[in-house]
Amino acid sequence: MATASVIIPTHGRPEKLERCLGALALQQLATGDSIEVIVAVDGALPNGECASPRVSDSETRIQLPRVGVSAARNAAIDLAQGEYLLFINDDCYPDDDWARTHIAAQRRGDTPSMIVGRTDWMAWPDLTVFDGLLRDTSMIFFYDTMRDGENFGFRHFWTCNASVPTSVAREVSGFDDRIRPYLFDDVEFAWRVEQRFGGGVHYDASARNTHDHRVSWGDYLERERCLGQMAVRLADANRACFGDIFGYEDPCRMRDDLAAWLDINADELAGLESTIASQMSQPLPTGDAWTDMRDRLYTAHLPVKRRLFRQGFVDAFDSAALDRPAIHRQLSHGSI
Fold first, then answer.
1. DSSP letters along 37-104, please?
2. Which CATH fold would you assign to the domain 4-123+142-211?
3. pLDDT digits (tens, 9 = 90+) for 1-39
4. Residue-wise over 262-290: b if at least 16 C-beta within 10 A, else e?
């Protein structure tokens, strides 16, 4: 029986998956410990080729129809033999002590724990201002505000680098596969774990991996719009979790408030977005010049970010109100 089961959902990135598996094959574990790797292939590749070659006898591969990342993780959890579940993305490459660090962190707790490690963006050779903002601010992750060894709330549980006892994941029935294609699936899972077991999310900065996923400014803006759209799905799936995140018990009231806000300063914000966009692809400066630019741009971009979320929420809510099955089909097929 393995000490831990590494869970990897994947779709359409065989080269990155192969590198992830190669890094897992090099894990340095404590004496007596072992890991198994369970790859849940979420839908066949268009040309029918394998997701990637196996690199270890400890790997199990599940071939699924296109079911979504949450259902893929659940299929892997059902097969897991380890005492702990270690979650990682197929485009993340763990340090060679990553699994050992998660296992040790799990064993230190007196009660069942959720652990999140640190995921660093790839150090691209041509770093831009936007790359630096992703690395150094809370645009996506919150590492700039987190302290190693402290506990944080459920919103800090990110399945690109996280672990939980297997029994805990099964006790809360795994991930909610209605929340698809992605976004809010991991934090909603963590919300249910926190409600059932308490304890929050423990941050262990020494459990590190590297994320091979370059995000552009345009990608980031589309992600914010998608967050708004997926918040509607979250409200359908778990109203209490939705309320804890957004402070609204009634998503209808939230929709009305956000719609009213969208009528304010629309032209001004369009001009602000254009001004910010012109700076995002510039080479990354260093020293005090970067510190000043980072703080100014991060603050300046927040109204743009919030507007896109609000627009996404209102659009998805209104579409769902007219035809709830239609918006569910759209979200399920990953078109947004």
1. EEEEEES--TT---SS----TTEEEEEE-S--HHHHHHHHHHH--SSEEEEE-TTEEE-TTHHHHHHH
2. Spore Coat Polysaccharide Biosynthesis Protein SpsA; Chain A (3.90.550)
3. 799 999 999 998 999 999 999 999 999 999 999 999 999
4. eeeeeeebeebbeebeebbeeebeeeeee
